[in-house]
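pls read this protein:
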Amino acid sequence: MTGESVPLSPSSARRIAAMVLRYWYLLRTSWPRLIELVYWPMVQMVMWGFLQLHLADNVGLAARLGGAFIGAMLLWDILLRGQIGFSISFLEEMWARNIGNLMMSPLRPAEFITALMVMSIIRLAIGFVPVTIFAIMFFGFNVWHLGLALAVFFANLILTSWALGMFVCGLVLRNGLGAENLVWSLTFVLLPLACVYYPVSALPDWLQYVAWALPPTYVFEGMREILLNAVFRGDLMVQALVLNAVYFAFGAFAYLRMLTAARHRGSLLQVGE
């Protein structure tokens, strides 16, 4: 090679401009992509902001919060991985362009959803069990000591993850793979609002109403009651279960409606962006 610079040919410039234009059109016509650009930095800012306020007002709790933080992280992983585990199996069919074949087969939507639920538990177990072992080895925190409470926490969080999974999969069916990023990001909307790492009281009064409308909020408040006060709040778990029933029914309804809309539009065989 010589040290001379190679001039940019007109054809190269046109190809570059065409690719830039293509990506611009994809971004401009896909609201999930636009939301993603703003929403993750905003979620992080809000979450750590509330955490900082809580710690600043309760410095004396710092020595007792180590276990609560680790427990919150493990329970949050159930919610996050449960939803992703549900959705990733669905995306596998989309990526393989096989979703249209499945929808034309005798497989019913309820059967397909059930299979996705089973796969989410399998995927979650593969990741969750080793993490809990590492938590015992390196931090001395044993989440399994929660016993029956852990089972109740798990049930509520996995129901929430399935409700979110059905809703997200319906959006992907309705909008194509342009909505794929929501699979990885939508659950993080709950991270600051469900009060994973801080109590509901750390939120502004008006935002507390939003937090109490989310089932995971009751789970994380219940976890802190056990770890900090050795009290199991059965009333919180019942309220979470009632809300989960509502959200689960809504998720199933939204999925079926968007599946019907995709069939009417003939988009099941057109799963591109």
Notes: Residues 1-6 have pLDDT under 50 and may be disordered. Residues 31-265 form one domain.
